[in-house]
Design a protein that fits this description.
mainly alpha, 58% helix
Amino acid sequence: MAADGNETTASEKARTEQSFMALPDRTEDKREPFATRLEEVVRILGLAVAPESQPGGPLTWEHRARAALREACRQGMDLSEAAFDALVKAAVHDPNPSFNRGFIEPALNAFGHSRVQSALLGYLRTGTDLERAGAARAWYWSALPLRMPLVRAKNPGFTGQAEPDDGSAVVAEWNEAALREFVSNEHPDVRRCILPGLPLRKSAYSPELHDLVDAAVAIARSHPDEYIRHRVEHQVGD
């Protein structure tokens, strides 16, 4: 993704560089939960999406819904608290590691990086394995610069678009939680989705977590999944 020139601050670039790494496909495609979340986005945001003209074509409706959301972002909209929750849930359940950006980006622009990242951290800590994996995939986009000036929060106590914020504390919390989850959770999708954004250098953590870094590297190097074994070698010492 191209840099944002002088408009992107050094902290935003650091967050972007940390997050933007290749993501794996899911080993399971849970499209039904995502369809429910997408329907909630359409309903809560009041998007105009034509119903299926023929039965048996959910992807066609899905593509129309995604397109309607993109168009609404271009035209401008005010997002409620319910819209924030719906967008984050849709991003977490989206089986597509690229298209989930369409839900994260408007939430970022209306509510800011820390708010979105904190919500994803909540899913990582307390969600189902499907949600933990999805949160890690959505985290990939959570450092994007704010480029949707017409997408705002519908809040009497807040005026204007969200400003870039220093999410370093949330990022540190995410890194620790992700490290612990990678070591303790044997679900393959959770590990595959956490690994690309997981720092594996000890300098990224407090001393009491250094043994967990060693454990994570050992688990990844001996894992039966080829992607995990291959990926870890590109990250050790980065």
